[in-house]
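Q: Second attempt. The first request was missing the SMILES, so the protein and adenosine-5'-triphosphate are both included now.
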Amino acid sequence: MSALLSIRNLKAGYGGAIALSDISIDVAEGEVVCLLGSNGAGKTTTMSVLTGLIPAMAGTAVFAGKDLLAMSTHERVEAGLALSPEGRKVFPNLTVEENLVLGSYNTRARERRAARLEEVYSLFPRLVERRSQKAGLMSGGEQQMLAIGRALMAGPKLLLLDEPSLGLAPKIVQLVFAAIREVAKSKTTILLVEQNTRAALSVADRGYVISHGTIVYAAPTSELRESQLVREAFIGSDTKTRQGERGDA
Ligand SMILES: Nc1ncnc2c1ncn2[C@@H]1O[C@H](COP(=O)(O)OP(=O)(O)OP(=O)(O)O)[C@@H](O)[C@H]1O
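A: Got both inputs this time. The predicted holo structure:
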C-alpha cells in the first residue's frame, strides 16, 4: 500500500512552548490509523499542524504526493483533507442539512453534492429524520454524527477525526463508533485521534502512541491491544475516566 500521508520528524508548539518534538506517522490509502495518548500528549496539536491551524517548526508532511506544509488551509481542503473537529463545532442555528451542505464548498465536492448527501444520510440514518431540525437542538451523539457527515461531504481522501468520543456517554460512544466503522468500510482513509483507547482500537487497523509530543510506540491494533504499556497507561484509565464523566446523550 502506498502512503497517502507521510509525516516525518514534525515539531510544533505555541509561542516558545514545544508541544510536538518528534512526530513521524504514515497513513496508507484505505487504512484507519489511530493516534492514542493521554491529556496534553499532543494529539490535537498534530491535527492542527495537518490542517494548517498552527505552523510546523520543523519536519515534513507529504500528502497525496504533495508538500502539505507548504499549502494554505484552503489548498489542503482542495487536496482532499477534511476534519471533524474536537468538540464537534456544528453551526447550532443552521439545520442539519445546511450544516452538511456547508461541508461541500470545495471544487472537488460541489458537483457531487446531491449524491454525497444521499451517501451521508445512508451512513447516518438518524440525520435523515432530523434533516430540517436546527443542529443546536440535537443530542451530543447526533451532533457528532453530523460533524463527521459534514467532513465526509467534502469527499475527502483523508478524514481526520479529532476525539469523536469526547463528552459522550458510553452507549452513545458505541453508536458513534459503529457509524465510524461503516465509514471505514466505504474505504475512506481515516486518521483518528482518541483518548478512549478501547473505542479507537475497535475501528483502527494500526495505531501510534504519543507521549509528551513524541511517538513512543507504533503497532498494528492486535499488538496494541495486547501491549502492557497500552493496557496500563490507557485502557485501565479509560474506564476510570468514563465512570467519573457525565457524558451527553
Ligand atoms: N492554544 C494553546 N496554547 C498553548 N499551549 C497549548 C495550546 N493548545 C495546547 N497546548 C499545549 O500543547 C500540549 C499538547 O496539547 P494537545 O491539545 O495537542 O494535547 P492532546 O493530546 O490533544 O490532549 P487533549 O486530549 O487534552 O486535547 C499541551 O502541553 C498543551 O498544554
